[in-house]
Structure formats: C-alpha cells, structure tokens
Give the backbone structure.
Amino acid sequence: MRLATAALAAFAVLASATVAVAQQSSGPAQRQREREARDQAEEQQRAPRLGRLRAVPNAGPCPFVKILYDAARYVELEEGRTAASAVGYTGEIEGVTAGCAYQSDEPITVQANILFNLGRGPQAGDDRRTYRYWIAVTERNEAVLAKEYFDLPVDFEGQRTASVEQGQTVVIPRATAETSGGNFEVLIGFDVTPEMADFNRSGSRFRINAGTASAATPPAE
C-alpha cells in the first residue's frame, strides 16, 4: 500500500513538472512570437490591394476600334415601306469594348467584345434569326486591309427583343517593330443592304421593338 501511495505521489510530482515546463514554454517568448505574427497579419490587411499589372507595356498604342455609323443598325422593311407595321427583324450594335497587346515586332492582337440588341417586328415570323456582321481592319482613314464576316445566331425564345454579346480576336501583322497600332482602325458593322445603309445614313431609325404594343413612342425619326 505504501509502495502504491509513493508511486502515485511520484506521478503527481512528474505531472506537475510537465505542466510547469509547458507553462514555461508558453511564456514571454511564445507571447512575443504570437504578437509578431498578429502584427504581420494586420500589416498585410492594411496593404493596398492592386490588380495584376502587365509585366511589360505594349510597344505602342492600340488601334482605334469603332462602329461604322452606316452599318450600326439593321432594319428589315417589307417592300421598302417606312412604317412600323412593315418592320421585320431589327438590330443595333449597342457598344464595343476592346484591348490590345503587342511587343517588339509581334503582330497586334486585338480582343473586342461586342454587344448587340436585336428585335422582332410585326413582319418577323420566326423565333430564330441568324444575323451577319463584319469586322474590318483599315489603315487609319485609308484603304481596307482585311475584312471578315461572322454569323450571329439569335433565339428570341418567344420574346420581341434579345441581347447577345460576342467576343472576337483580330490579329494585325506589322511591317516593322516601329509600326504603331495607332496607324490602324478596326471597324465593326452589320452586313446591310445598300437600302439599309441609306436608311441609316439619313438618320432615320426604328426602335428594336418597333410595331409592338410595348413601343410607347413613335418608332420612326
């Protein structure tokens, strides 16, 4: 019995010593490390958060990207009648955002995102329609260097209007490393007939929901 009591006492002393060592290890040095870690975390939170920047800037400015006014809108008019009741499918290039990248003597890569607003007038019978548009590269205010056509399939899903966004990549070769993107323009427009171009050029227009009950104001201007 005495041996058992002595063993228990020895175990209690050993346990107390272990606790003391543990408490000692979490003493001033440990608290100092915790303060330093906390201060470092707070400093990181206070640091300004910046977006990722390009490692190397472009070799020059980007080409000008524009919507050609004469082809900015697409309006089908039955038998050429300028009336809301004669409107078929319509479309408008609502806007475009673009950026570019090129280094040294590399070609210029232009990434363009184009927003289209489309509509169905009284003469548009089907829910589906494939529009066509083009992207052209020109020397600034000069001749067209290249032009490519694209399909724009639209499903109105029973509605009178729809919005579609498409992204396109344009690659422009450069003659030398000194050729600047500012020498070029990128033009965007619908594939329109000469009559549609004249209609747009005259300043006349229809709302994309022309001829429907929701067109609260007279659609022709």
Remarks:
- The longest strand covers residues 87-101.
